[in-house]
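Hi, here's the filled form for the chain we discussed.

Project: internal
Contact: R.S.
Residues: 453
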Amino acid sequence: MYRVGIDVGGTNTDACILDGELKVIHSVKVATTKDVETGVYNALKKVIDESKIDHSLIKYAMLGTTHCTNAIVERKRLNNVAMIRIGKPATTAILPFIDWPEDLREKIELDSILVSGGYEFDGRKINELCKDEVVEFCNRIKDKVESVAISGVFAPVNKQQEEEVAKWVREILGDIPISLSNEIGNIGILERENGAILNSALSQVGKAVSLGFEKALKDLGIDAQIYFSQNDGTLMNLEYTMKYPIFTIGCGITNSIRGASFLSKVKNAIVLDVGGTTSDLGVLYNGFPRESSIPVTIGGVHTNFRMPDVLTIGLAGGTCVKGEKDNIKIGPESVGYRITEDAIIFGGNTLTLSDIVTKLDMAFEDRKSNVENLDKEYCDEVYKKVILKLEDAVDQMKTSQDDVELVLTGGGSIIVPEKLKGISNVIRPPHYTAANAIGAALGQISGDVEKVY
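And the returned structure, exactly as it came back:
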């Protein structure tokens, strides 16, 4: 019996095969494709062909993806969202989308409204619902809305009003993606509301990734139980993933942390997962990802659902480099999966960090002729800024001034030097380029409980 783990990044798709004793049989890396499904198919076919296993013995298939994270960071492929908050008059002083980055808000916010309702902390009603307010709002947006988010005051204590409003919304808008905040986050209306909004905005991305994985398995004749990694490193099924794509945010680094621990045998370290679009930093504490104890910021938005303690920065192998020597701009834009077409080392015209490290003799020695015309002094200045960004990111994840070990994962880690300030030892374990896929294949279960005292 085998299990296969796949991680779909913005640039590369990794796949690995583990046997029944969790021994890594083989791992591969292929370019991510625009339609997701093709990249997953290519990775699966390659890992099966090269490992020469009988694909009928694959009983479990696990997928982890950073597509939702990348969509928010890059402000791309997001649905517009109509926000309904049940909290008038209690929450009129603070409106939905408050403190959001302006560019993300412009991309997502279609309209928002505060309607009568809400609960006290013990479940008693603050105010009754008013159906007319909801109906009028839905009629106003019905020709242009793509998804809806609903939040209510203390909805995790009593979800009845959120469910009632959702029923009214469906009567007018039909089968539209709706996110209820009580199903997304915990106590704390603004952060919980933000999570519901982001979940609705990711509906299209989540569906594309989920169905793409399912089709890729069918096309290869693999009859396996399908699971998706969520942000605490555990698994969820296909239907759950399409309904709650927000829970895949953070799964990439969580899988990398679990994979890094499994491969390196290190129990306490910082894990730096460098892809082609973003870099994620997490903390390995006693062999497990350190969970965030504060509201987690995703793309500049505060949320409060369970998440690993992660820092995501727009610094990776495909990160674009712009500007003159005295005004260098690094990222957050990335060529992503187009790196093999757009990067200079592959014959393109876009300057990326992969081109910079190639010029500095750190990678792709066979392609160095493509970067002969790059100015070495300029590349040195760019790389100095890269090191400063990495050291600053590492410093943000540390809880003391002591040096710590750094475990590198991901193919983009070619941009990371062997020495960094605050790091005692840089570790590149076996199969480190596919650590995220290996972490996904390990498979874990979880549960959570919340109480109001």
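Let me know if anything looks off before we file it.
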